[in-house]
């Protein structure tokens, strides 16, 4: 079986509330050397919607030495800015941009969603970032086909949904685009269902486990490693989702991760050590050595 695309939605490290490029690059290079193929900048885990355009462009520039492996999330509530980011992405010759649809506002007409993606993809090929729970809009296969009919250059979709039926419909009914799973829990399913890859926030800290899922997807160990990752992702949720990932990166990889940006508050010392204790119990349960 052909290798699937492994995409890491990188955390964005802050120092004194400024994007810390040097920590970002060290962490990005570490996961890349660990075997992950694409670095996804300004996704959800990267606090994308809280980054200004100059901050996103700063990150784009920080990874200018490895353009083929970079995807920039440029979706926003200001299409002109999103288009500007896609133009910059083109200059840097990165693999492509990803884009959340316009979010928060209700009543976006379907034809406006089609226009949004068509206009954006005139600048740079687009991976649609479908996250219905947070955006309020579900970009289903029929909408993608409308975007393509309208001339949109759509190269893939990142499906952050547990609705596998929607994911499989897109795989079935939209020709020639890559279909990526978004939830950490669906990496194994991406292999077993013949999808094209996965985007997993947990790969920031758990890329070695992700590689083990890849190596073992066709046997029972694949399930075991996926369940190990699921338990770590559940702990991450318990200790404060995105904020906890910074600590989990440091605990599992030894690479500095910087701080999140408030209102994602940094974990207290007590929480970090309680998290580490619970992580160690999970490692022990699965007989996993760091
Ligand atoms: C995940 C989202 C959703 C990874 C990104 C990703 O960060 O951009 O915790 O499942 O809501 O799909 O982060 O994460 P959860 O693509």
* Main beta-sheet annotation: 8 strands, parallel, barrel
Q: Please, how many helices?
A: 12
Q: Helix coverage percent of residues? A: 40-55%
C-alpha-based Rg, rounded: 18 Å
**Extended strand count:** 10
> How much strand content do the residues show?
5-15%
Q: Say which molecules are bound, naming each kind only once.
A: 2-keto 3 deoxy 6 phospho gluconate
Order of helices and strands: EEEHEHEHEHEHHEHEHEHHHH
Structural category is alpha/beta
Arithmetic mean of pLDDT: 97
**How far from one another are the termini?**
28 Å
Q: Write down the overall geometry.
A: globular
Widest sheet, order of strands? 1-4-5-6-7-8-9-10
Unreliable spans are: none
Notes on the protein architecture:
It is globular, with a radius of gyration of 18 Å. Strand 6, helix 4 (110-120) and strand 7 form a beta-alpha-beta unit. An 8-stranded parallel β-barrel has the order 1-4-5-6-7-8-9-10, surrounded by 5 helices. A two-stranded antiparallel sheet has the order 2-3. It has 12 helices and 10 strands. By secondary structure, the protein is α/β, with parallel strands linked by helices. Helices cover 48% and strands 13% of the residues. 2-keto 3 deoxy 6 phospho gluconate binds next to loops.
Which terms would index this structure?
single chain; about 290 residues; alpha/beta; 8-stranded parallel beta barrel; 10 strands; about 50% helix; globular; binds 2-keto 3 deoxy 6 phospho gluconate
